[in-house]
Amino acid sequence: MSCKVVTALAISFLIIGAETCQAKKILCLMGIGAGTTDKWNKALLQELENRQHQLTIVTATSWTTDEDVFPNARLVHLEKTQVALKERYESITIGDLLKQSTWKNIIQWYDRQMATCRANLESIGFSEALHLALKEKGKYDLIIYDIAYGAGCLLHLAYLFGNTPIIGITSGPLNSQSLFTAHESLLNPALDPHILSDFNEDMNYWKRWHNTALYAFDYLYQKWVLKPVIEGLWAKNMHAKNIFTPNDFKELMPRFQVVLANHHPSLHSLQSLPANVVAVPGLHIQETSKTSLSSEILKFIESGKAEAILVELKEDIVGLENIIKFFEALKSFPQTRIIWANQGQANSKKLQKNQPQNLMVTASDQTPQILAHPKVKCSVISSDLVDIQESLYHGVVPLTITTKPEQRYIAQRLLERNLGLNIELTSLEEVDVIRQNLKNCLKEKSLSKNVHQFERSMKEQQNPSMATATWWVEHILQNPKANDHLWTSRKDSSNFLVIRSLDIIVVIQIFLVLCVINSVMVMRQTIANFKEMGKKSKKKIQGGKIESLKKLKKSKSKTS
């Protein structure tokens, strides 16, 4: 008996010891702080904290004000980032952004990244992060970095924490920046529309020209504007503090062991991924059921004779007049239950006056439970990837509202795959357009069929996304150099021309042009020679005739 007790105690101690060994220190650098990005990132970090890892999170979001989000983590708030971005872009309306050309949108995209970098460095939280590295001599087993903007200012901090391995994460569509961090550039201008364009995948000749020009402009702007500015901001800030680190990221790139991407091939033109980019689509989605719905909402949905629609439109983004137009279109569906998941947004007297009688305003934290209800057939949401995935995961057809230029890419993929519908914000003024899209969202059978197929592919994954992501994090924690063999310096050194073999194509084209020019010159010379020969033969013939005439005259004169 005593032997069994000893064995049980030994096993218990081994289990406790193993769990203790698993608990690691992780530094998370999240300098972007966009709303939907936070949703995805937060789900992953909360899961890591639940697995007893010690997190230090340097973030531009306001997680620091809510102790329930990360009760055991150390939070460092980059407090100036969101304030600075709001002040910088408050004069630019959503309508102005959507009307801009793609060229201007690329400039705006990178301007935002430079402004984010500047605000990160000016925050008190950044000084705290430096103190953590230099004064407290913080040692970490892993760095998790948000690569949605590629290699940004915060990534420089990795130089101050030794040779700690890095894992990149991104909640948005993969782009040239995030793929460059993964040592690859697989996006092909002939096949993959630019991330800020609204091109479909079946581009004609002129669109391919346009798309290639966008990729080239994007590459040159990164190389000649974005990179020097970010490196300059970092160098100036560090010089003032007498801290010396490399200004570029070349030495950091080999330390990226893996990238966890919110990627699904149905929602992206890129169908295959590099070996060190792991797709974990819908990682933020948690299984739920209608039973967890509040009794009030459940009663409201089930009291309807027809389907239900979930609407997530925010007045501060969409605009009061556009929401009123949307309400006008919704009045054409009196038998349909409409749930507006935006608590506090219906306080406007004008909205209350115009809202349909079959509409109920609820808290947004009930959104997953509402989507899980079988009577909900359509969701009106923004064209953000995480919101679209959540709707598709629950088998609900998304009707997306595009409010940002970068959302057009995902909206276009939805339309191409027949997985949803889309309305530009500028089209919300047309009630008939809204009404027709709502009707299609509820009644179009092909849409519903495709969405349910996508739902099955998400729910029946061999390995759930969250389990895959945490496995990779803990695998790198235990094996810091696990993916070193995937790195080659040639990928990092290749430029826009080399990656696409344009340098070879240019040489071939120059050779062909020279051949054509040479052929034309030879043909012209040959023609000229023939003409010259023709003239000579003509003169010779004429000379012969004259000579024969002279001889004839002489013979006549002799006979006479």
Written description of the protein model:
The chain has 560 residues and is an alpha/beta fold. The chain is 52% helix and 12% strand. It has 21 helices and 13 strands. The strands form 2 sheets. A 7-stranded parallel β-sheet has the order 3-2-1-4-5-6-7, sandwiched between helices. Strands 10-9-8-11-12-13 form a 6-stranded parallel β-sheet, sandwiched between helices. Helix 3 packs antiparallel against helix 5, helix 5 packs parallel to helix 8 and helix 11 packs across helix 16. It is extended and about 140 Å long.
CATH architecture group name of the largest domain: 3-Layer(aba) Sandwich
> How many independent structural domains?
2
Gross morphology is extended
If you compute it from the alpha carbons, what radius of gyration comes out, rounded to the nearest whole angstrom?
Answer: 33 Å
Strand content: 5-15%
Number of strands: 13
Q: What kind of sheet is the major sheet?
A: 7 strands, parallel
Residue-averaged pLDDT, rounded?
Answer: 87
Biggest sheet strand order reads 3-2-1-4-5-6-7
> What kind of oligomer do you see?
single chain
The helix content, as a percent range, equals 40-55%
Instruction: Quickly give the structural class.
Output: alpha/beta
How large is the count of helical segments?
Answer: 21
